Amino acid sequence: MSWKGLTKSVTRAPQTIKQRFSIGEITKDPIYIDAERRFDELEKETKRLHDESKKYFEAVNSMLTHQIEFSRAVAEIYKPISGRMSDPDSFLDEGNTEGIRACDEYEIIVKELQETLKPELEMIESRVIKPADELLEIIKAVRKIAAKRDHKQLDYDRHRAGLKKLQDKKEKTLKDEKAMYKAENDVEQATQDFNYFNDLLKDELPKLFRLEREFIKPLFQSFYYMQLNVFYTLHERMQRMDIGYFDLTLDIEAAYEKKRGDVQAQVEAISLVKFKTTGGKRPGAQSKYGSKALEAKSEAASTRKYTLSEETPPPPYSPGPAQNALSPALSSTSWSSAAKAKGAPPPPKPKPSRLSGVPATETVTALYDYEAQAEGDLSFLAGDVIEIITRTPNDNEWWIGKVRGKQGQFPGNYVKLHS
User: Fold this and answer.
1) Where are the compositionally biased (Low complexity) regions (predicted)?
2) Domain boundary among 240, 268, 286
3) Which of 80, 209, 213, 226 is least enclosed by beta carbons within 10 angstroms?
4) How many other CB atoms are found less than 10 A from the CB of residue 377?
5) DSSP strand E in 147-234: where?
């Protein structure tokens, strides 16, 4: 805003406040007020048409582009992982050749759709979006004239109020007479300026409204039929899509079950899925305990079973180089003499890196003797009451507890929760 414009805004500020709160005498032209209302509606409709048509144009283009990118992404998933397919003598097909071929076919169909819809989308841009842009430019110019008209009305009402105040003064001085003469000239000039812009808009706006019926409404109709044409083209082409890899006669869930086949049964037969753990690999965890635990859980993968005797303690653990930081190292002889002749399941491997918390007052009773085998383990005897610090809902995982002032990790299947 220029200095001149700022000065005028400050001068008009009092009258603007009066007009906003209907204080004093405000000029009102019913014909112009009705024309201004219709002009506001015209501006809103034009903006809506412009925005909606542009949004639709971009949405269709984005959808088709996204479908091509999606098809390429799925094809990447279907490709082999190990690179065995690069070996011409390989007899094992590790990739999904049929799926990749189907993705390529789908991409060709979408590209054909892009070419088919390109003229329709260009027509939306040329026959709807651009004309709406041009009309918005005209509306912007009219809006500037309307703003000038409002400013001239403020000046007109302001000068009239000033003149009336001087005229109503009973005893006028020479200074008042000079001020009233100037005020009369200001009112006359403000009246001419206001009437010029007010009459101009009252004369020109009805012409614009008549053109609205010949311009805006047909644009809305054209846009509607263009949308229908795009929709029917998409629907018809997708209905004719014949890619054998996809069964379009089934619903989504049934098609998924058909493609999955017996994969779930094969996965469940793998012993590793029965060991659920939340942590990473425990340092030095490749011990006899780990191998025995896998053997105990592997019923489908191997006919060999590992069964612990009721009379024998857990198998020995091969300790790593590090000692337990939470409790002193205990001799195998002292623990062996104190242990009861009672079997124990092997501890689960690996330990989780994070465990879910439970109330600190929870306690468990040790069912078997356990000797610390690695740094951070907790040693205890059968029958010890252990205070739980942290545990998981699954007893085939590692918990954290405290007994005799020592804290550490221990296998959850070595203890029994207090009910």
Assistant:
1) 325-343
2) 240
3) 213
4) 22
5) none
